[in-house]
Amino acid sequence: MELLPIQQPREVTQEIYWIDEQIVSRLSSRNSKHSLSFGTKETYRSVIRDFNQFLQKNDLPVNDESLKRYFLEIRLRLKPSTLNLRKYALLKCIKAQIGGDSITRTMIIEKVFEQIPTYQTDKTVPKDKCPSEEQVIKLVQAAPTKKTALLIQFLFKSACRVSEALNIRLTDCQPVGFNVRIQIFGKGNKARHIEIPRPLYDAIRREYQGKMYLFESKSGKQLLRQNVLKQIKRAGRKIGLNISPHVMRHARATDIHINKGISLTATSRLLGHADPSITAKMYVHDQVDYSQLFSKDRI
Length: 299
Fold this sequence. Notes:
Elements: H1 22-30, H2 38-58, H3 64-74, H4 80-99, H5 103-114, H6 133-142, H7 146-158, H8 162-166, E1 173-176, E2 179-185, E3 191-197, H9 198-208, H10 225-238, H11 245-259, H12 264-271, H13 276-283, H14 290-296
Antiparallel strand pairs: 1-2, 2-3
Helix pairs in contact: 1-4, 2-4, 4-5, 6-7, 6-10, 7-9, 7-11, 12-13
């Protein structure tokens, strides 16, 4: 698709009636430091499809007015965090497709998006949404296969994001005493090291028998994120929990910091957060106990 230059400062572009989904794949290659995970790419493509459907339905081009109308239309049916995600996704994709290497066009696009509200959100993960260690044990026992059980154990022990776990290569793993140290590449390809017990690592190797990746399918390819999600959700339903792989990360963060007294800084490093304040906002469950509060009221 040929992109037309911006001819009026108030517009993002002229006569562009859709955003190309292929731009998502090119976003990672433009700058490996800010490469996108598989899940993020899928989310961005979903956002693009929704925006393109809006443009087609209303016969609108991509410009400042259509963007404002789009966000006005969706703001009543979506959560603030979802609105922020859509804003950020469209900003990145439109800058990549239409802004290109032009500083002027990029600045105009950014000015347009400044007029779209960004919402303040509560990033705290509620404690009741974080399974206890006992619940994780039951989840492991309810797993449909031994491979799924081992993957659940790994996700809990390591506090890895599922995409990080599925990208682990055997060359990233190194025995260190009674543990195995694993190099993890997180968001933006930021590297960190985590460790898991040697017996867990050995059990994973015996069961998966990967040639390149720690977690491989029988065909020798990386496990698919969607299949992992289905297997863990199936196990969760057996014990009455609506659970996803990412919940293991929340459960471990709460477990080690709140229940086992590991410092906030150490917990933050395990999770790969840029700053302990991020960890504190998400996992320090210092919330109002309303029963206790109301029992002390005199009114």
